[in-house]
Each structure stands twice: as structure tokens, then as C-alpha cells.
Write a structure and sequence with these properties.
This protein is an alpha+beta fold. The protein has helices at about 25-30, 65-70; strands spanning about 10-15, 35-45, 50-60. The protein has a three-stranded antiparallel sheet, with helices on one face. A hairpin with a 7-residue loop joins β2 (about 35-45) and β3 (about 50-60). It is elongated, with a radius of gyration of 12 Å. It starts with 10 loop residues before the first strand and ends with a helix.
Length: about 70
């Protein structure tokens, strides 16, 4: 999935505290229940063998009312 982290009109969220083995696919599937998720990216280490860095970003194309209530 390709997306721009600077898409106008999108709501961008930071998330952290991830296990290094967490996949983008699992997070995309989970957070899609809160709205139209247009993109998700886990920050990676330079060495792909080490997995993610424990944080990332996601963007919603629509108002994710459930997430806003949680914040």
C-alpha cells in the first residue's frame, strides 16, 4: 500500500510501544474498524532482520470517531 504521510485532509496518528515482531498487516486490519484507514507505516531499523523500531504512524481518510473518543 502506498500513501503519503502528508496527505491533506487526513487525520494522522502516532502509535508506539509495539513489539518488534508486530506486522503492518495486523495493525491495518485492527485499526480499520475505527474508520477508513488510508495508510499505516511501522518505523523500521536499518537492519531488516531486527524488525520494527516500536513505533509508527497511521492516517485515516474519514473521521475515526471511535479513536477520537479514546483520545
Amino acid at each position: 500500500q502506498e500513501w503519503s504521510a502528508k496527505s491533506p485532509g487526513f487525520l494522522r496518528f502516532y502509535f508506539g510501544g509495539l513489539n518488534k515482531s508486530t506486522s503492518e498487516e495486523v495493525l491495518f486490519q485492527y485499526f480499520s474498524q475505527f474508520g477508513d484507514l488510508s495508510g499505516l507505516e511501522i518505523a523500521k531499523t536499518r537492519d531488516p532482520e531486527k524488525g520494527g523500531r516500536g513505533f509508527g504512524y497511521m492516517e485515516f481518510a474519514t473521521q475515526p470517531h471511535s479513536v477520537i473518543k479514546l483520545l
